[in-house]
Amino acid sequence: GNKILLELARRGHQVTAIVQRKFAPNTANKNYQPIIIDYDSYLKNQSINLYKSAEKGLLDKIWSTSGGGLGLTELFFNQSSVQNLLKSNQEFDMVILEQFLNDAFKGFCNFYKAHCVA
Q: Which domain of life does the protein's organism represent (predicted)?
């Protein structure tokens, strides 16, 4: 996903991207503004035992996956960098997001009255 955003910036589009620190690009581009979020402390505390996971039934797997998604979503929206973005009065024509355990992120499309590409 980040390659597409970097290419859009290289071609002259103004891009604001919410990215984990470890995925932030090393190269500077005046058209690319990263909003850095930190999931590291959360992920360190989340241990997944694949052997135990394989023993779970389908509903248990769905429940634990959606619970993890909820935890990440709450962590995401409580990040000061995301809060600052929401308060910044910036305007966007389009919101591009990855579609995996992040239905709440579609709220950015509504919040900014922007086209949504998932």
A: Eukaryota
pLDDT tens digits, residue range 9-33?
Answer: 999 999 999 988 888 888 889 999 9
* Token digits of residue 69: 């998604």
DSSP string, the chain: -HHHHHHHHHTT--EEEEEEGGGS-SS--TTEEEEEE--HHHHHH----HHHHHHS-HHHHHHHHHHHHHHHHHHHHTSHHHHHHHHTT---SEEE---SS-GGGGHHHHHTT-EEE-
pLDDT tens, residue by residue, 39-68: 776 666 655 554 566 677 777 666 566 566
Contact between residue 93 and residue 115 where contact means Cβ atoms under 8 Å apart: yes
